[in-house]
Design goal:
The structure is a homodimer. Chain A is of the alpha/beta class. Chain A has two domains: 208 residues, Rossmann fold (3-Layer(aba) Sandwich), CATH 3.40.50; 91 residues, Rossmann fold. Helices cover 47% and strands 15% of the residues of chain A. Chain A is built from 15 helices and ten strands. In chain A, helix 9 crosses helix 11. Chain A is globular and about 55 Å long. At the A-B interface, helix 12 of A face helix 12 of B.
Chain lengths: 315, 315
């Protein structure tokens, strides 16, 4: 079942009362440095500090009340956990979150702050899934996947939809790619609401699975995992892979040094706090600046949830 | 000569083509924590990363062309230096900046980046003034004081004017106080454009001169100087002191720990980069939260120019 233009428009109307329409920022100095016109869609200013609340709300709001009342469930150590926790709170139900027992305290506390019940597990995918299954069996809560779900993709698509509505004549949009929910949604909004916008993605070399999957058409693993962009570690799902192969022009990989350089630029010039994953698209454009000279480029800043003690590792 | 409502309106019209009308941000979570409604006027997003360009442009734009063509001059290690450097660049003239030779490289480079000529001196006020005098004698450039100048005050007042225009029914505005250009301008805009808005200031305990001057009516020195809020080290001038005594309700002092706590809150919850001076007003409100419960409070975020390597000292 393909995601239609109407699906995204309906998702947007559905979630609008619960989300921020985030600011689009520009930077004269970054524009001058690279000869492009950048428009940064600041989902770091979104509720929970990241775009994930868009998909989480869109999925949750479509559940029948008999399902919703049993609660929402997911396993995540990142922003999707916060999204589901807040969605449950806003809709007056429970959230059951499975988190690896090595999750940073700041993320655990954020999820707790929304009143979610946390079950800790060992930090392996197997342990996560086993624990999740037990929690669901006990509670009857509805599992909401972080990205491989059309309701999630349609929700994440609304960030690019807003950007396209606000900034006329965009020629390029670039997003980071982890599980591909944001990227696939972005590519659909570009197709449906834009005028011949090309969509690109940035991916860390140290989590370069999407670029391989994009070429082979199968879900591949990354050759190695080593990146500060901790939101981009996941592999694609079949739904996101299909959309991305059809609608994304190219996936660029960037090194850790390139990620930190782009992140530093955003902190210093734009005065905003972003998480490392959010610097990956800008790093990709900077790496290929010659190809993008003079273009009007939308950049999805996916989130700003960082542990401030990490600054000493980066800057 | 008093600064009138018309002076501020004219300043605003004069500088509008050269400055950003900066965003006003809100934070549900900070509002919930303290039971207030905060509206943050984000001058960290302003050109040069701080409000100072407002005053700098307003003063420069009123110079006769015969004066302007000889250039602009000031001594500053901070944001005013960047403001004068950029004003000169935008108006097609030269800037001559005297900076102490222990200024951080990041600030020197920012001023150089606008094409200003920098003369270094020893880091004492005497050396600054002597060096400045020599530069002015050599060049004939016009000296522009960082705060004790009515054109500067009228320019800085435009930040609060914009905030009042955008956010209806503000009851309180709070700004940081160093030399008092921003605070005195803010208090005038509150009086002229607001509806019974009370204006407060935040000052570091480790640079607590304004609170003393406010009481005595004379320009006092701080009992001791020790603060990370490096934009607030200066004492008031006679012009700013007079306006502040007439129009500001109270000056609150805050400790270094309170500044860092407020700064951390802004980074974590609002996802913006601010300089320590900008955290001082929020720290003051937090300290006296009981007095401000339920109020609609405008907070002037004065700037975001930080050396990212300082993060490791703060967080």
């Amino acid at each position: 079942m393909a995601i239609t233009k109407q699906d995204i428009s309906e998702a947007h109307a559905r979630i609008a009362p619960y989300i921020h329409r985030t600011h689009v920022l520009t930077s004269d100095s970054i524009n001058e440095m690279y000869g492009c016109k950048f428009y940064f869609k600041c989902e770091n200013f979104q509720k929970i500090g990241a775009f994930k609340i868009r998909g989480g709300m869109n999925a949750s709001l479509q559940l029948a009340s008999s399902i919703l009342e049993k609660g929402l469930a997911t396993h995540s150590s990142g922003n999707h956990a916060q999204a589901i926790a807040l969605a449950a709170k806003l809709l007056g139900t429970r959230a059951y979150i499975v988190m690896p027992d090595n999750s940073p305290a700041v993320k655990v506390n954020a999820v707790k702050g929304y009143g979610a019940e946390i079950t800790f597990c060992e930090p392996t995918l197997q342990a996560r899934e086993d624990t999740m299954e037990k929690v669901i069996r006990r509670t009857g809560a509805e599992f909401i996947h972080p990205f491989n779900d059309e309701r999630i993709v349609a929700g994440q698509a609304t960030a690019a939809k807003e950007l396209i509505e606000e900034v006329k004549d965009l020629e390029v949009i670039i997003a980071p790619v982890g599980g591909g929910g944001l990227l696939s949604g972005t590519s659909l909004s570009a197709k449906y609401f834009g005028n011949n916008i090309k969509v690109y993605a940035g991916e860390p070399e140290g989590a370069a699975d999407a670029v391989l999957s994009y070429k082979s058409g199968k879900i591949e693993s990354a050759p190695y995992i080593k990146t500060i962009a901790d939101g981009l570690l996941t592999t694609l799902g079949d739904i996101t892979l299909g959309i991305i192969r059809e609608n994304v022009s190219e996936i660029f990989t960037v090194t850790e040094e390139e990620i930190i350089k782009a992140m530093r630029l955003v902190y210093e010039r734009m005065k905003i706090v972003i998480e490392p994953s959010s610097a990956v698209p800008l790093a990709a454009i900077i790496k290929h600046a010659d190809r993008f000279k003079g273009k009007r480029i939308g950049v999805i800043i996916s989130g700003g949830n960082v542990d401030l003690s990490s600054f000493r590792d980066w800057f």
